[in-house]
Amino acid sequence: MPIRQLSETMINQIAAGEVVERPASVVKELVENALDAGAARIEVATAGGGLNLIRVVDDGSGMPEDELSLAISRHCTSKLGDDILDIRSLGFRGEALPSIGSVSKLAIRSRTRSADSGAEITVEGGRVSGVRPAPSNRGTTVEVRDLFYATPARLKFMKTERAEAMAIADTVKRIAIAFPAVRFTLSGTDRSTLELSATSDEVEGRLARIAQVMGTDFPDNSIVIDAARESVRLEGHVSIPSYTRGNALQQYAYVNGRPVRDKLIASAIRGAYADVLPRDRHAVTVLFLTLDPAVVDVNVHPAKADVRFRDPGLVRGLIVGAIRQALANAGIRPATTGTHAMMGAFRPGPTSYGHPGPANGHRAYNPDFRAATSASYEPQRSPFRPLDAGFAEAAQASFDAGPLHSADARAGQAEMVEALLRTELGAARAQVHENYIVAQTSDSLVIVDQHAAHERLVYEALKNALHSRPIPSQMLLLPEIVDMPEEDAERLALHSETLARFGLGVERFGPGAVAVRETPAMLGETDVTQLVRDLADEIADSDTADTLKERLHAIAATMACHGSVRSGRRLRPEEMNALLRQMEATPGSGTCNHGRPTYIELKLADIEKLFGRR
């Protein structure tokens, strides 16, 4: 077949394959256009999961009549100057509208602030109609009907209507977090409406928008992030270690206001939480990176979901360091969700009793019962009389003879020390089931898992010992020669000083090979070849050599697990209080090495609610 020039419609349909992946992609492009136009109110309406109808209405600056035909032409945009590296808007490629129009029935109505009337242009499967006058409010209305009708094969790859509608909702929420001062409305065929009222661009307004999207639990279980390094600034909120999710869908990242799904950022978040979360749990994060547009390339993918940083090591180091520092400064905080679960477990529920009647613990109503008159009432014979002697002061004296036996151990009979009650974890009062320390603060009850708590303390001490001095290494009798691609060998050589601090001696050994002369003594016998190749892969992927550090930390975690206070050991009151004080002074002690919580807290107000006092 001879080489020929493709038609304009075919070119647009090829571009649509990259830009218009599904209905959510269309919503993303249209909402970004509305934001670039300065809209303060954006309304999105869909039908059939976005396949039948997508309508986006905004109150932005609008387009003049003579520019409508340019708007649906390829590579026509008002957002890009002469410098491709100076991109300060969400859109810039000029491909979205012509690509959408090539695979659907597209209609655009717009009016500027100064115009007396609006104008409209339509595109059906790539065929453009002329611009004509049309009634319109200030701003722009874009309607997309019968998406992919011009390319019916694409419809076979769409998911269910509900799945597509959920993807659209996620897209709107993801964008809305970055623009709290804009009001968003999303409605669909299921008659459900998502309304996100405008707040402000300040920190409080941004947190209020985050609560609208992610729920009110997140602000109560989050930590503020505010850090900078060189020309890069990081802001946002991250969850405390005890507040997690089963997937990473609630990890939101933004680069200069643009929502992105970047592997580098995701890897940095995992690295920051590596010591405090189990492998199957994920932190909840909202991070905003602000940097010079010239040092980040957003023109990597047509959908603009990926970015490329000029200095990825700087960005990763900033994220990891800022999150770890924030977690350390935040001290120990239990997740409020744990308190809610504990409240639910304590609330009265259906229970089987040995007598007939309702399962709420109250006596069933007896219709034969009649209140006795005062003349016939005999207190000693009444079945409703107070209990016989046993709670009088004389009878109570026997309880003062010795300690109560309702717990395995008591934290002493001395008077409460006010100083301890004012601390975060309070004063130890008892040890139950030889594993749980019950402590009291001035306004709460705290239950501590002694093994999990001490395991974290020992682990942190071992880590500090590892980083305070060079890692002891063991010399190999014969150097291990590892063959690998030349680029991997060069990367290892560049990181040889870092690896040496962790006890791994690596040097070049001719082209395409490295020689390993020393390994960390903590690793014992290990597969040197596999270790070095894993390190080379990690350096190529994220420009770090954390694999070796993670292995050393894993050994320290195992040592901490076996060297900590075991379940079943009775502790003296002074030992329990000492453990609580160490927890308060140790960053990350709210969870153990495996990510499980080390303690839960129940506020006095919640306890009073359980007993109906509030």
Automatic annotation (TrEMBL):
<dbReference type="InterPro" id="IPR037198">
    <property type="entry name" value="MutL_C_sf"/>
</dbReference>
<dbReference type="InterPro" id="IPR014721">
    <property type="entry name" value="Ribsml_uS5_D2-typ_fold_subgr"/>
</dbReference>
<dbReference type="GO" id="GO:0005524">
    <property type="term" value="F:ATP binding"/>
</dbReference>
<comment type="function">
    <text>This protein is involved in the repair of mismatches in DNA. It is required for dam-dependent methyl-directed DNA mismatch repair. May act as a 'molecular matchmaker', a protein that promotes the formation of a stable complex between two or more DNA-binding proteins in an ATP-dependent manner without itself being part of a final effector complex.</text>
</comment>
<dbReference type="InterPro" id="IPR002099">
    <property type="entry name" value="MutL/Mlh/PMS"/>
</dbReference>
<dbReference type="InterPro" id="IPR036890">
    <property type="entry name" value="HATPase_C_sf"/>
</dbReference>
<dbReference type="GO" id="GO:0006298">
    <property type="term" value="P:mismatch repair"/>
</dbReference>
<dbReference type="InterPro" id="IPR042120">
    <property type="entry name" value="MutL_C_dimsub"/>
</dbReference>
<dbReference type="InterPro" id="IPR042121">
    <property type="entry name" value="MutL_C_regsub"/>
</dbReference>
<dbReference type="Pfam" id="PF13589">
    <property type="entry name" value="HATPase_c_3"/>
</dbReference>
<comment type="similarity">
    <text>Belongs to the DNA mismatch repair MutL/HexB family.</text>
</comment>
<feature type="domain" description="DNA mismatch repair protein S5">
    <location>
        <begin position="210"/>
        <end position="328"/>
    </location>
</feature>
<protein>
    <recommendedName>
        <fullName>DNA mismatch repair protein MutL</fullName>
    </recommendedName>
</protein>
<dbReference type="InterPro" id="IPR014762">
    <property type="entry name" value="DNA_mismatch_repair_CS"/>
</dbReference>
<dbReference type="InterPro" id="IPR038973">
    <property type="entry name" value="MutL/Mlh/Pms-like"/>
</dbReference>
<feature type="domain" description="MutL C-terminal dimerisation">
    <location>
        <begin position="428"/>
        <end position="571"/>
    </location>
</feature>
<dbReference type="InterPro" id="IPR014790">
    <property type="entry name" value="MutL_C"/>
</dbReference>
<keyword id="KW-0227">DNA damage</keyword>
<dbReference type="GO" id="GO:0140664">
    <property type="term" value="F:ATP-dependent DNA damage sensor activity"/>
</dbReference>
<dbReference type="GO" id="GO:0030983">
    <property type="term" value="F:mismatched DNA binding"/>
</dbReference>
<dbReference type="InterPro" id="IPR020568">
    <property type="entry name" value="Ribosomal_Su5_D2-typ_SF"/>
</dbReference>
<dbReference type="Pfam" id="PF01119">
    <property type="entry name" value="DNA_mis_repair"/>
</dbReference>
<keyword id="KW-0234">DNA repair</keyword>
<dbReference type="Pfam" id="PF08676">
    <property type="entry name" value="MutL_C"/>
</dbReference>
<dbReference type="InterPro" id="IPR020667">
    <property type="entry name" value="DNA_mismatch_repair_MutL"/>
</dbReference>
<dbReference type="GO" id="GO:0032300">
    <property type="term" value="C:mismatch repair complex"/>
</dbReference>
<dbReference type="InterPro" id="IPR013507">
    <property type="entry name" value="DNA_mismatch_S5_2-like"/>
</dbReference>
<dbReference type="GO" id="GO:0016887">
    <property type="term" value="F:ATP hydrolysis activity"/>
</dbReference>
